Amino acid sequence: MADAKAQAAGGSTLEIVAKSALLVIGLWALANALWLARDVFFITFFALLVASFLSIFVEPLYRRGISRAVTAPLIVFGLFALLVLFFLLAWPSLRAQFVMIQQQLPPAIDALQEWIDRQLIGIMDTMGATDTEIEHELRTRMTSELGGLVGGTLPLLNTAIGAVTGLALVIVSGMFIAISPRTYMRGLIVLIPKSHRRRAGEVLPEAGAAMVQWMKGTAVGMVIIGVLTTIGLAAIGVPAPLALGIIAGLLEFIPYIGPALSFIPAVVVALALSPEKALYVIGLYLVIQGVESNLIIPLLMKRMVKLPPALTLLFQTMMATLFGFLGLLLAVPILASVKVLVEEFYVEAVADRQ
């Protein structure tokens, strides 16, 4: 009797070990498959962002009886034409401004790096390393980290041809998704087990609506910050205000980190004139960020997904480490989508019932 119980217990233990091993192998295989398909994932998510942006214009026209198949391509071509017209009109001035920034940034960065080198050399003298060794190590690590952040780990998108192809795929795919969003939604729901399809049919449209609202609020915020920055820098008398305003508006897409990055070139350009100009620029950016935090964001966030700042920063860091600059770009919209799905699928459906 005791031998039978021992054999049954041994068999049960082996079964648990086998199932656990299969689960680990399955998760490992899934993680590797996702890593190999990361280019496709990023292109798909960028296409969803494009579709969300187009929906801002397409849906109001669709509710008035105009077909999505007509409005979506027209809006794409219209926005492209406006962009081309803007650069044709502003390019001579913009080109001169970007050349000025390009010329002034390297000397300032070199001066900052030399200062950091001097401080670290003073601290590390007691460790026995020579100045040349320390400087070489610092430059190697800084170059490696910066290259990893900007380049990322996306093989397809790291080449010029791959980037152009990816951009074309993103725009065309986003346009088709905006033309027929329900078709792609139904196709996604079919992949979900039958027992969860009804709930998925309720949650996925909510996640899509949250993405559209996030895109709408982000686009408005980018325009406001870009305009305020351009006007403020021009009023102070800082060179290249339009170029710096465009940089600030584009980097506003990346919460928390983007505004800090846009602050650097403006201060560098102002420092080339005088320390007083740099102080004015610092004050201007503090005022703009104060207006953004206390007025713009609260107004835009009424219908947007609210994300905890600490969680957002940690997720941005993780995505930047894994996927470089493109990962940093997509970190917040991915986190917003995941937050909606977790709240709807788990918190409301499971956790709140316990």
Structure description:
The two termini are 41 Å apart. The protein is globular. With 354 residues, the protein is an all-alpha fold. The protein has helices at 2-36, 38-63, 68-124, 131-151, 160-179, 181-190, 194-236, 241-251, 257-271, 275-300, 309-347. It has 2 domains: 39-91 and 136-179, no CATH class; 195-354.
Rg computed from alpha carbons, rounded to a whole number of angstroms: 26 Å
Portion in strands: under 5%
Look at the structure and give the mean pLDDT: 76
Major sheet attributes: none
List how many beta strands DSSP finds: 0
**Topology order in helix (H) and strand (E) letters:** HHHHHHHHHHH
The shape, in one word, is globular
The low-pLDDT segments are: 146-150
Number of domains: 2
Proportion in helices? over 70%
Q: Number of helical segments?
A: 11
- Structural class call reads mainly alpha
Distance between the termini: 41 Å
List keywords for this structure.
354 residues, mainly alpha, 2 domains
Topology at a glance:
Elements: H1 2-36, H2 38-63, H3 68-124, H4 131-151, H5 160-179, H6 181-190, H7 194-236, H8 241-251, H9 257-271, H10 275-300, H11 309-347
Task: Write a short abstract of this structure.
With 354 residues, the protein is mostly helical. 86% of the residues lie in helices and 0% in strands.
